[in-house]
Design brief:
169 residues; 3-stranded antiparallel beta sheet; 4-stranded antiparallel beta sheet; rod-shaped
Length: 169
């Protein structure tokens, strides 16, 4: 009687993969430099993980913002008479901006523009202003001098005491 021997079954894809992996591991471990290669692989993996964590954390910290100087104005002289020239000097304003200098009475009901000034590249300006000598300004004991930016919301107000005017006939 003839005995038929069954044909061997072809290896499955999984068996082929396992056999390849076993061969690769045997070859890998047979090399004399495998500890160095393993250490290099581990370090490379750790470096990759650190780079991903760094990227997810947002990178280096953002630099601290540079503080923006607040606009300021000084008047010279500090006390003036109606009809006198005062000088408004400002710093910390936006370069290239235009500012309006105006005065108002203590109630804020009356306002009078005095001058416009162009802000220099360093954020400063200097502008002479002629105070009105006519009524009702001449009878006030103080006025409020306001400097307002035409391009931004900056506005600085300073109270300016006025000396009384005496008229002699």
């Amino acid at each position: 009687m003839d005995e038929t021997i069954p044909a061997p079954t072809p290896p499955s894809a999984r068996q082929k993969w396992r056999e390849r992996l076993r061969l690769w591991v045997d070859q890998y471990l047979a090399q004399q430099y495998w500890p160095v290669i393993l250490a290099f692989s581990v370090c490379t993996g750790l470096l990759g993980i650190c780079m991903i964590a760094y990227a997810l954390a947002g990178g280096p910290p953002a630099p601290a913002p540079t503080p923006t100087p607040r606009p300021s104005v000084q008047l010279s002289p500090g006390v003036a008479a109606p009809g006198a020239v005062i000088v408004a000097a400002g710093s910390g304003w936006q370069p290239g901006d235009t500012v309006l200098v105006h005065i108002s009475d203590p109630t804020g009901e009356r306002k009078l523009p005095l001058a416009y000034a162009q802000v220099a590249g360093d954020g400063s300006f200097t502008v002479p202003c002629l105070l009105p000598a006519d009524q009702p300004w001449a009878s006030l004991s103080q006025v409020q001098v306001t400097v307002r930016s035409l391009n931004t919301a900056y506005e600085v107000a300073i109270s300016l005491p006025l000396t009384p005017v005496s008229y002699t006939h």
